Amino acid sequence: MAPRVLLLSVLAAALAGCSAPQAETAPGAGAVTPTPETESPSKAVEASRLAQSLNAQGAAQLDDRGRLFEVKVAGCVETSPDECVGTAEVSWTAATFSPAGSAQLLSLYWNANDSLFAGALRQGHGATGYSIITSDVDGDSVEELLFHTGREGGYGGPSYTVFRWHSDQRSWIEAPEFSELTVGSTGVFSIDEKADLSVWFADGCCRRIGERYGIQGGIPQLLERRTETLVEEKDDEVQVKTETFQGGKLVHATTETTVVEDVK
Fold it and tell me: Does any domain span residue 2?
């Protein structure tokens, strides 16, 4: 089933101009524990949450259901009271749902409040904005790792670098086919019960594009694209174009204009 159309109130607001969507409210995830260090007696008692989340060497530990993440962020430049960005080294221990590994990242957006999200990326998951996301996105029962490495999402939102485990090579390798689906998107993609991937992209103030992918051989394959465009000067009508793909080729397309409330 294709993702649902924008509600009337959202579409009407779009005519007034584009604005960045509000960050999703996310459920709690792994606890953040700074790597132990010797603290100076002169250290300020009222340190910020960001300062408390990393020690003097820019290191922290994350506990994910018994799996331990070691994060080291160098030259972390503050982007908000709770977030900074810098080069990073991340390593993690093995678990039943994921082998051990490590990654060298040219950038990592470290968020003191939203450091680690672990779990299924169902619709409305709330994972967008977390520094590290661990979830099975290709249906192989091994959780992939998504690192918040950029601001190339829709409206300057988070974009991610995705790593998949390759059992034939016994190593973690970047998966650009998944990473690219976070560029220009209005949030991290969701995965339904059939392991199909859905993602939305922003295209100006009055149009958005939803795409649905099936996973074949660990690679996303486009199945359907849905383009919703607000009809000019009619804020209660939307033009909906639905395109169906097979083997990467367009096989069917329909277009209809309808009142917002009638679109499912």
Answer: no
73 in a domain, yes or no?
Answer: yes
Rounded to whole angstroms, what are the CA distances from 173 to 89, 115, 243?
A: 15, 22, 32
Q: How far apart are CA 205 and CA 227, in angstroms?
A: 13
Show the domain range for 196. Answer: 8-15+28-36+47-262
Q: How far apart are CA 229 and CA 242, in angstroms?
A: 12
Tell me if 23 is assigned to some domain.
no
Domain membership flag for residue 192 = yes
Name the burial class of residue 144, with classes exposed (0-12), middle (13-18) and buried (19+) by CB atoms within 10 angstroms of its CB: buried
Angle at 159 between CA 156 and CA 164, to 5 degrees: 175
In the chain, the number of structural domains is 1
Task: Output the tens digit of pLDDT for each of the chain's 264 residues.
Answer: 444 333 333 333 343 444 444 434 344 445 455 555 444 333 333 457 888 899 988 999 999 999 999 999 999 999 999 999 999 999 999 999 999 999 999 999 999 999 999 999 999 999 999 999 999 999 999 999 999 999 999 999 999 999 999 999 999 999 999 999 999 999 999 999 999 999 999 888 889 999 999 999 999 999 999 999 998 877 789 999 999 999 989 999 999 998 766 544
